[in-house]
Amino acid sequence: MIIILKPDSDKTSTEYTDLVAYLDNLPNITVRMHEEKGEQQRLTEFYLVGDTMPLDDAHISNFPLVERVVRVSREYRVLGRHNEDVRASYFDYNGVRFGQDEFHVFAGLCAVDTREHVEIVMRALNELGLNCTRMGAYKPRTNPYSFQGYGKDCLPYVFELAGKYDIKVIAMEITHDIHIEEISQALEQAGNPTGVMLQIGTRNTQNFELLKAVGRQRQFPVLIKRGFGITLEESLNAAEYLASEGNHNVVFCLRGMKTNMGDPHRNLVDFAHVPVVKRYTHMPVCIDPSHSVGSREAGPEGILDVMHAAAQGVIAGANMVLADFHPDSTKALVDGPQALKMNELEWFVNDLQIARDAFLARKQCHDKYNS
Ligand code: PEP
Ligand code: MN
């Protein structure tokens, strides 16, 4: 059960302490308070876990500060969509809104290699008016002898350049909880010129201790990739781990499934699940066409498979696109073969806009027939 309080409820009021005392005395129920500080208001919610069946919704609704009581289904208690659930499907981070009605492109380097390449990418993004990117510093690699990323050593110049080119959010994978502190310190030392969305990679989707650590911190939002060899339900439960620890600012990313059935693509593209994730949960949905397709092959009409896959996800309502770009992909230390070139950035962004406009037109058309 979720008890949603009226916005800006005063925690020092007797109405508040009366409610908390009542909740604390409920038998066989654990209560967890969650607070979300937006730019305009502060929202407080209580999550009740345990034997909630006997509770009287009407009685709880009568407490003066209570705005609404929501009965949650068993699945995805925090991130799930439940009946009568009016909680917002968005969050704001560093001036950027992420939600099921929003759309952002995160083009950038799979792995940071040189300062010069980071600058070329960020300058190009800025020239096109884009304020988000991806930059891999900590790389989980299949082969232990492969390049593992420059880690915290590259963070100072990545953050400095992000500030210079007005980048607001960088998606950055972490593979260990100590990386959260490294990123936080490097941001602070650089004067917080940008923001970071912590990325949980597909290999770590079920690394539950990492999920708990990332979920416990509230400084950074999280982008969690679907596990490439597990069911959608298992991956959504992984996302719920983050939320259950307190961080509700979670974006879910589809990135293809590992099976030879997807050959010749690196993974089997799973973007038909975009509307499914939006239906089951409140999370904005990201797609990663680069890691799904894994090559620069094109159809006979000259459109790259990566662009086709991206368009398929966006026309189905994706809210974010994560894509690998590189100024000189023959020199890329990770995933060069799938990287788009800098002279393809504007082309890619325009193509995505066509797909986004088509999604919005489809939505309008369906609204007409659904009403
Ligand atoms: C990545 O985005 O750089 C990455 C490693 O992706 P995935 O975890 O989906 O393989
Ligand atoms: Mn990669």
Structural description of this entry:
By secondary structure, the protein is α/β, with parallel strands linked by helices. The chain folds into 2 domains: about 1-70, Alpha-Beta Plaits, CATH 3.30.70; about 90-370, TIM Barrel. Helices cover about 35% and strands about 20% of the residues. It has helices at about 15-25, 55-60, 115-125, 155-165, 180-190, 210-215, 230-245, 275-280, 290-295, 305-315, 345-370; strands spanning about 1-5, 30-35, 40-50, 65-70, 90-95, 95-100, 105-110, 130-135, 170-175, 195-200, 220-225, 250-255, 285, 320-325, 340. It has an 8-stranded parallel beta barrel with strand order 7-8-9-10-11-12-13-14, surrounded by 6 helices. β5 (about 90-95) and β6 form a beta hairpin. The radius of gyration is 22 Å and the shape is globular. The model has no long low-confidence stretch (mean pLDDT about 95). Bound molecules: phosphoenolpyruvate (PEP) and manganese (II) ion.
